[in-house]
Amino acid sequence: MSDKLKVAVVGCGAVTEHRHIPSFARIKNKVILQAACDKNEELARKVAQHYHIPKVYTSQTEMLKSEKIDIVDVCTPPQIHAPIAIEALENGCHVLLEKPMALTVSDCDKMIDAARKNNRKLCIVHNVLFHPPLVKACKLVKEGAIGNFIGMRILLADPKDEMIMRKDYWIHKLPGGVIGETGPHPVYISLAFLDKVKAVEVFTKSYLEHPWARFDEFRFELDADNGLSSTAISYSGERYAAEVEIFGSKGALYVDLQSMLCIKHGPKTSLSQGTLVKTSLSTVSQTLGGIIANGLKAITGQFKVGHDTVIELFIDSVINDTTPPVTGEQGREVIRVLDMIVNRLYEKYGKPSEN
Ligand SMILES: NC(=O)c1ccc[n+]([C@@H]2O[C@H](COP(=O)([O-])OP(=O)(O)OC[C@H]3O[C@@H](n4cnc5c(N)ncnc54)[C@H](O)[C@@H]3O)[C@@H](O)[C@H]2O)c1
User: Fold this and answer.
1) Which domains can be identified in the chain, with CATH numbers?
2) 3-state SS class at 228
3) pTM for the complete prediction?
4) Residues at CB less than 6 angstroms from ligand 1
C-alpha cells in the first residue's frame, strides 16, 4: 500500500487547474491526487480525466463518506470556504485553503476551532509571500540590509477582461466587491512587515462604470506602529502588475513579481553624473544577475512559484507534524484587516444594497 498522502481537490476551477494541480505534480513522491470534486460535474470529470485523478464527486459530503482522504484542498469561491473546510476537518482531514480564508472573522474562528478540536492542520494559501524575490526581500529586511523598516508600497493590477468585465463572476458578490478577491494579497504581504494594523484609509474610482462593479480602482493605506503600507489595486487597465517596494532607513527594495526580481537600492543617491552611472550600473547588474539565475532555474525545472512552495511546505508540515507555513491565525488576521478596509469603504461610499 502507498504511504503517499491522499489529496482531494474541492472546486476544480482556474486556480486548481493552473496552480494547485501543477504544484502537487511536482511533489508526486509525497502525495497522490485521489479525487476531484466540483458541483459542476462536467468540469470535475474534465479535470479528473486530464490529470489522471481516479475519482470524481459533485459533493464533498459524498466524497468524504466514500473515500479515505488525508488532505482536502479547498479551492471553491470564498463564500463557502468555512462550511467546506469545517466539514473536512471534522471528518479527520487536514485542510489546505485558498485565500481569503473566509468572509468574516467569526468564520475564521470556527475553522481554527475545528482544526484544534480535531487535531488537524489548517493552512491558508498566501502564495505571493512565497514567490522567491519576496522571500528574499523578507530575509533582507530581517537581516537589517535596508536599516530599520519604515514602510512599503504595493501595486497589483489585473487586466479588466479577467476580473471586472465578467458580469456574473462571484467576486462581485464579495464584501467590498472585487477588493474582497485581490485585497487579501496586499494585506498579507503588508502583514509580513507591519506590526498590528490599527487604522485604515480607502479611496476608490470607477472608470468603467459597470453596473455590477461599483469601483475598478482602489487605494488603501494601512497604519501600524512600525510603519505604513500603501496599496494600489487596479482593474481598469489592460495589464498585469505585481510590485512591492519596501523602504528602510538605509535603503529600499524593489520587488517585481512579474519578472521575479528583487533589486536593492542603497541609501544615498543624487543627480550627479557619477551617482547616476553608479546607481544605473547597480540596477542593471542586479537585474541581469536575477534574470540569469531565474533562467537557469527555469531551464532545469527548479523554478518554483509561491503556490509550489507553500503547498510543499504544508505537505511537509503534515508529514513531520510541524506548524503549517501559514496558520489559521495568520489567515484570520488578514480577514480582520480586510474587514476594516471594507467597513471604511462602506462608511465613505455607502453600503451597496445587494451585499
Ligand atoms: N492565491 C491565488 O493567487 C489565487 C488565484 C485565483 C483564485 N484564488 C482563490 O481560489 C479560490 C477559487 O478561485 P477560482 O478562480 O479557481 O474560482 P473558479 O470560479 O474558477 O472555481 C471555483 C470552482 O468551485 C466550484 N464550486 C462552487 N461551490 C462548490 C461546492 N459547494 N462544492 C464543490 N465545488 C464548488 C465551482 O463550480 C467552480 O468550478 C477563491 O478563494 C479565490 O480567491 C487564489
Assistant:
1) 5-120 (3.40.50.720), 129-304+338-348 (3.30.360.10)
2) strand
3) 0.96
4) 10-16, 37-40, 43, 60, 75-78, 80, 98-99, 125, 127, 181
